[in-house]
């Protein structure tokens, strides 16, 4: 999308009045880490962790958007700034909750 002067328009983002609790999950389901979503747009979101991200080589992961784990977005890491990360949405996925809780918390 470009503006009238030929510059790319910045995608609109929604800044939440309160942080939204979410989780990131490894693509293979082997780990999960709690965080909060600070803002979001159509193409991505800003997440904040209590401590720096535990997986520095992270490229792709799922962002769980519902408490039951049934709504998620596949994401790519866009940037890291201390305890905050930017994510680019790659697609929407539907996940079924894990009855055995076999993944481990980070």
In which range does the helix fraction lie? under 10%
Run of helices and strands: EEEEEEE
Report the span from N to C terminus: 38 Å
Low-confidence stretches: 99-106
Count of helix runs:
0
Mean pLDDT, as a whole number? 81
Radius of gyration: 15 Å
Tell me, briefly, the overall form. globular
Structural class determined from secondary elements: mainly beta
For the largest beta sheet, what order do the strands appear in spatially?
1-2-3-6-5-4
> In total, how many beta strands?
7
Main sheet summary: 6 strands, antiparallel, barrel
Strand proportion, as a percent range, falls in over 45%
Write up this protein:
15% of the residues are buried. The chain has a domain at 30-47 and 55-96. The chain is globular, with a radius of gyration of 15 Å. Strands 1-2-3-6-5-4 form a 6-stranded antiparallel beta barrel. It has strands at 13-26, 31-41, 44-48, 60-64, 71-81, 84-94, 104-105. By secondary structure, it is an all-beta fold. 0% of the residues lie in helices and 56% in strands.
